[in-house]
């Protein structure tokens, strides 16, 4: 019995946590401290906080991965959820390992906007597009994150003659089309942008850089 108990403890999944970007929410975990046997498989359940019954996630029932997509199951973004995982190896079942409480609206990371650059001789015009959620409108297009949050765009310009890391903030606001003027012809400029959520005081990563020579 003790040996079984040891085995149960040693295969129990560790560090069960939700990770979420633009409401694409996945449950991640690490294998137990036993060197993972080849035949170890995992079973995932989830529930809304306050419910008594756990739901099986059928696509993640007896899987070898250490990740399970729960985007659809956590689509009520104001609700708090839990996930849990157990391992089975050589006929031995571990106990369940529980995640922390996860509320998508509070905890999802917002991605950067998509930036398109159009240049004229002394100015750059930027078109910004908010990141999209995985959830769809009736017509099938994905709902932008601006439907869920009051988002601001932060735009930075990098003059390539100067230090690479020197990002000068040139705009913060909601406009989707921005004109940056009084730039020097013949100089290469790069633009990066972030999405900022004032209510949560949270910024996205920088967008990929878009560069142009005037």
From TrEMBL:
Cross-referenced CDD domains: FN3 (cd00063)
InterPro entries recorded: FN3_dom (IPR003961), FN3_sf (IPR036116), Ig-like_fold (IPR013783), Interferon/interleukin_rcp_dom (IPR015373), Type-II_Cytokine-TF_Rcpt (IPR050650)
Compartmental location: Secreted
Annotated Gene Ontology cellular component terms: extracellular region; plasma membrane
Domain Fibronectin type-III: 12-107
Keywords: Disulfide bond, Receptor, Repeat, Secreted, Signal
GO molecular function: cytokine receptor activity
Keyword ATP-binding found: no
Pfam families, sorted: Interfer-bind, Tissue_fac
Family membership noted in the UniProt record: Belongs to the type II cytokine receptor family.
Function comment: Receptor for IL22. Binds to IL22, prevents interaction with the functional IL-22R complex and blocks the activity of IL22 (in vitro). May play an important role as an IL22 antagonist in the regulation of inflammatory responses.
This protein's name: Interleukin-22 receptor subunit alpha-2
UniProt organism field: Circaetus pectoralis
